[in-house]
Structure formats: structure tokens, C-alpha cells
């Protein structure tokens, strides 16, 4: 074997950020580092279901050793495309090349391409030298080439990369590619070519390759290795294998085994589990099969029935059965995610999970009070050559549940063993965005829990179904939680999961999976014995009835016709009706009432009227009337949410008198108990969610100790939901509600609650039937002949909107797992395909508005008192992490449609913020301060100002 047939170590893999006094880091050694890390990831990070999925996709059956070696080979070849004109992109690297390579600089650099694409083009020829079959379009060699091409997060279409290209070089370059490939192959024990390589397995392997590459590309690690290279590649590989465990642990990715505790100890809840929770603990283990193909659990129960703890108990059961290593708990909003994060952190802490990686995963997670400024410093950057993956310090849990610094980097938090966040972060795994393969890797080694599964529109439901399809293909156990999920929706989600697990669509079409209410339904992905379909098991009738009795409540529904216009009869005006209903609270009898409004403007107006009537102190000053909505600065909203949940929670202390005025933010996952709930008309499922805050803890208090404070007032003899219905008596939807809810759903709900007016609804007994009557299959098709012209128009608009949303989601989502041929199908959009180029929610274009104060002396400050100057940076300096936090915690999320292009230019942030990924997108509203009072600012025909008590006001 000649010198040209062994890897030449002047061919470099890493240069930027390393010691400039030493030669760059040799490519072959970086390839071996990545291979060693991939082997360790297989052993320690991947879950049993992931290893099984990859082995099956490679056609090696139970031979996981062969699958492990194949994964190591893919990682070990990921940068083979750097054996190309890439070698001349660094002056330092070029200077250390052997002369035989420098001679080709002119011909190989005429046209540039990314080394990922170069690897895609060159890999098959190099693998052919090892005897791999390169004729099969989706054979092992072609798949490995696709993985190499996708290791920067985006898969490329092979036929778009052309044939021979001067950038790849010939002769000595071709021989070096073969030499590098052969060296890696030999040190891995010369693994045999896999018999097959299906697309879902290749996506997972790509995720492993990306993660392995990132872990061994950290600057500190590379500098250490650069300074003391082993004498041989064999010795280098041995050290790389030894180093892998430390790198994984430092990144916070080494799985931790929890010391499982009893129910009360694990969740910090006094008393025994309720019948639903006990059933999950005792009956679910017998339902979970041993086929290793995963399963999906649907838990249905009224708000306040402890579904979250039931899900965490289910995670114990299914993780033991399928070998998952942690959980992903996903919720509809950032506020609900923040609250659940604290609960999961507590459960982990009580079960000796201090060393477990736990991350809060949403766009503003790092602004949560659980994080400190000290932890916003960036972690060690990953050294790359095509755009650095630099860590942006954002993630931190409370002191004893703190994730390693590495996990704070962009796109990394989902990789932690335990994650809590918004469902949007998961849905990006099935959108054609960069690094979606990494997201699928991160999600598929955990038990996947989705709370409030009813809370998503048709667009998001399609994306969720597509994600469940992929998780079904990987045998991931899934838990869906809901209080008001229509059977047609749950059936669709379950079938998508089963389709991903390999069940035929035509056979699934003949099945249905009705879920008991309250209770649970578990569908195992493995076929039932003697059947071609999956095995479904439900909660026992005894446990279901016990749960229904324990949580039973007779909810009286009261409908109040209201008008919103000032010219209408005074007695029916909305505010007058609310004041009449709250008279017992206002006039000295006390009690706790919740008023839920459909718009922020209505909430602000209602709060002002009630505050003037009840208590002139503000929410901030401890008044008896509180206001909560989404248009407060983040730090204010966080404090107000804590104040509201503290006063209306299970453990008190309960106030003598309290009226909470809120928007939809209280519908989901906020633990509130009110003596009376008053709500604007909303779709029936949401009304039931709001009603779930009425006497929420009554049964719990009846069996245990009541919260500190007064008991129910005398006027509150039963739980009551009052619906303020503007459609009653022939009214119409208020114009200022806009498209918050479709007119058809509101009209159908108005008719349904009219039939309930004055009677009681049995909770939970009648809940599911009510949901189905408006939202389920029973509500479709409508009786067209019975509708008037307005009703027909409303139904057509509603149905058209739903079909359009589902169609749009179907167009943008990646294909189902079984329908992927070439991996380029996962990246079908033009551009860079990063997260901001597509949406997990329709109509969700938003902006972050920072309201600052312009003082008479020309100073601009973050606070009205003028003590906190607007952060800036000097020439060439970056804005400090603490300053970024100070700004972002004061921003308010608003609709992007509020601002024209001219507005955006006028409200552009300071130039010094332009290079920061968060600050550069902030819109800055400068409010002139006159006599100590901030003045409104005109924006697109409206006037905006931030009121300390009302939040952002738009008039």
C-alpha cells in the first residue's frame, strides 16, 4: 500500500478556533472522533425502541451489534466531503497542506459548494471501493451518501448535485477519499454492508451523526486533542472512545435512572391517588404488550382530575415496557409550559433526579424566573466551517435540576432526557426545516406526552397527526391528555400513530377507538393475538365509575342575553349584566368569581368597570379585582399568573373577596377554583374548559383539609357557569371579536347552551356528549334546509376554513414515514429552511413590542421612573446577556398585522441591537413622558400605550 493509500494528515478537518501555532486538526482524526461518539451514543443515549427501529431499518433483525457498527460508520464518514476544494477555504489549513494537494488549488476552487453536498456526491464512489453496492437507488451506499449530505441539517436531492465536479478533484483526491473511508471502516471492525436502509431509520441515524459531530466539535475538546495527537490512528480511536463518556456527561445527556417513589412522595400531593390515577398505575401495566412496537394512551377526564399526574405515572409503565429514557411533556402555551415545568422539576427532584437533564423548551423559556442572569453566558462554541453552531445561553432549570451549559445552545434543549415546553417545538420535527432529523431523534427516545390535545386548530391537528405517524414508526409510547376531545379527532390521531407503526390504512378504516369518559384507552401498536388489528384496552368499568363519582358535579348553566353596543337597553348591556351577577361578591358577602373574556380589550374594559365599583386599588397594589391576559410584559404576566393561581389554588390562602378578569389564558392547565364562573360566549368545548375552574377543588377539599381562608359564601349554593350570549334573541357576533371564533361554532354553541339554560349538567357524565353535539361527527353534516341564509353562510365559511387549514398543513408537512423515498423529501422548501421560514400555527405571525419611555431631557429608559437606560453596545461590542434579558422580559407579544412596513421602520430597534438574534427583531415603542405620564403613540390608525395596571392598551 503506497503513501497515497493511507490517510494524509495534512488534510484537515477543523481549523477555526483552534491553536494557530499548531497545524489544523486532521480530518481523519475528526472522523474517528465522530465514529467513537456515535458508538457511545448507541450504547448510552439511544433508547431501546430507537436501537430496535434502526436495526430493523437496516435489515439486521436482532443483530444490534451490526446496526451499531453501521451507525458508527455513517458518523465516521460524515465529513468525507471535506476532501475537496474545501481544503483551500482556510488560509491556515491551506498553508499546512502537503504540496501535492496545494497544486490543485486553482482548478478545485473555481466553483464552491458546501462540503455536505460534496460528501453526498463523492461518498458512493468511495464506498464502492469497499465493495458496497452502488446500483440500488435506496441501498446502503445511497443512504449513507444522503446522511453525509444531510449532516448539516438539510437533506439534498442527489440528482441536483450533478456528476463529476472540479470541486471534488481527481487522482490523489479520489484515492484519499477511499483511504479515509477505508481507515474508518477498518477501525470499526470492517462492518458488512447493511442489507437495506429504510428512510425512517436513515433519519434517526442522521440525527445521531449530527449530535455526534456537535459533541466532538467543541472548541475546548478539539484544542486538547490538537495539542497531544497520538502516534497512531488506532491509539487515537481508543482515546476517542474513552473520551466519549465524559463529553456526553458534560453535555448533560447521560441518562439518569430515577429512584421511583410512591405517588404522594413523587408529586408532593397529600393523600392517595384518585381512581383514574390508580387505574393507570394498576391496570395499565397489564394492557401494555411486549411486542416492542410502542402504543398510544388517551386519557380523558374533566379539568382538575389529575391528568398530568396520571400521565407521569403512565410514563413509568410505558418507559419500562419500551425502554424510553425520559419524557417530553408538551403543552399549548408558554404560560402552561412554565407552570408544568415546575411540577415536573419537583417530581424529578423528589425521585433523586438531580443529575437529570431537564429543559424548558419554548422561544422565551430563558426568561422564566427559574433562570438567572449568570447562566445566560454562552457555552463552548461548536467549531464548524460552514456557519458556526454557536451556543446561545438560554436554558437553565432551578438549582438542583440545572441542565449542563451545552444544552442551552440553539436547537439542543429537546435532546435533554426530560423536556417540558410548547407543542410547537415538537411539531417542527415534521416541518421541512433544517435539523428536523435532530428533533425526531430527540423526541423518539422519550415518552411523548401532549396535554390539552383538544386545544389545537385543524392546521395543528394535521401536524400533530403527522408527528404521531413518525413516532409510531419508531415505536415511541405516546400519551394524549384531554378534557374535551371529540371522538373523531382522537380516532384520527390514534389511527395516524398506528399507520406509522405499520398497520394498513384500509384495515384501520374499518376500526374505531372510542375512549371512555372519564378514563383511559390504550392501543398497543402490536397486533392482537389471532387478529390483524391492534389490541385496545380501556379502564375498567369499576375504576371509571369510581372516578366519575369522585369528581362528580352538578353544574348549573345560566344563559344571560347581552349586548355590546352603548345604544342598547341598559339592562342588557354586558357590563351591567356582569355587575348584577357579581352583586353578592361586591356588596359584602365575599367569595371568588372568575370572569373570562374573549378579547383583551373586553377584559381591560371589564376590569376597569369592576375596579371602579369594587376596589379602587390596582392588581399590583393588592386590590380585590385582578386582571390577567397575554398583553403584559413577560415579567409582569409571570407575577400576575403566580398571584392569581396562588389566591385561587388548592392550598390557599383563599381570599375573602376576589374577582379575576381574564382572557383565554385561564382555559388550560391553570389550577384555579372559583365560586362562580362568568364567560363570554365561546365554542362549547372551551366553555366546558372554563367551567372546569368552577368549584374545581370542592370534592378534593371534602375529603381532605380545605385551603386556608373562608369557605364558600352563602350565595354560592352550587357551581354555576353563566354564559354571556350576544346571539340570544337574534343578536349577532360582536364586530370587535373579529375571527377569534367562527360564527358557525358560536351559533351552534348558543343553541346548545340555550337548551341547557336553567338546568344542571352532570360532570363528567354529560361532558363528552355535549362536546360531540357541537364539535364532533354528530354535528356534521348540518341540516342545510333548517339553516337560514346567514346560517348557511356561517357554516360554509367555517367548513371552508377548516378544510383550508387541513389542506395547508398537508402541503407543508413532511411526508408520512412510510412514504419517504429519498430523504430530500424532508426538505421541500426553498431557502435555508430554518424555523422561522414556516409556521406551526396559522395566523400566528407575531411581533415582540418593547414599550420604553422618552423623557423630556431626551433620555430613553426601560422604566417610567427613568432609572434604567435603554441598553446599548459600543462599537464592536455585544449587548450583554443580562441586558438582553432585561429587554426581553419587558416585551409584549402582539399581532404582527398591527404594523405596516412604515411602522416597522419607525419602531426599529437601536442599531447596536442589529446583530443579536432576539433584539434585532424587537419593535420599540417610544412613549413620550409628559408630567410623569406616558403618552399614547399612533400606530396604523390606532393608539398604543403600556399601562402599568391594564397592560398594553390599543384604542
UniProtKB/TrEMBL annotation:
Biological-process GO terms, alphabetical: defense response to virus
Record SUPFAM superfamilies: HD-domain/PDEase-like (SSF109604), P-loop containing nucleoside triphosphate hydrolases (SSF52540)
GO terms assigned for molecular function: ATP binding; endonuclease activity; hydrolase activity; metal ion binding; RNA binding; RNA helicase activity
UniProt keyword Hydrolase, yes or no: yes
Gene3D superfamilies reported for this sequence: 1.10.3210.30, P-loop containing nucleotide triphosphate hydrolases
All copies of domain HD Cas3-type, residue ranges: 20-215
Keywords annotated in UniProt: Antiviral defense, ATP-binding, Endonuclease, Helicase, Hydrolase, Metal-binding, Nuclease, Nucleotide-binding
InterPro entries: Cas3-like_dom, Cas3_C, CRISPR-assoc_Cas3_HD, CRISPR-assoc_Cas3_HD_sf, DEAD_box_RNA_helicases, Helicase_C-like, Helicase_Cas3_CRISPR-ass_core, P-loop_NTPase
The organism's place on the tree of life at top rank: Bacteria
Record family assignment: In the N-terminal section; belongs to the CRISPR-associated nuclease Cas3-HD family. In the central section; belongs to the CRISPR-associated helicase Cas3 family.
PANTHER family hit by this protein: CRISPR-ASSOCIATED ENDONUCLEASE_HELICASE CAS3, DEAD-BOX ATP-DEPENDENT RNA HELICASE 47, MITOCHONDRIAL
Official protein name in the record: CRISPR-associated helicase/endonuclease Cas3
Source organism: Streptomyces paromomycinus (Streptomyces rimosus subsp. paromomycinus)
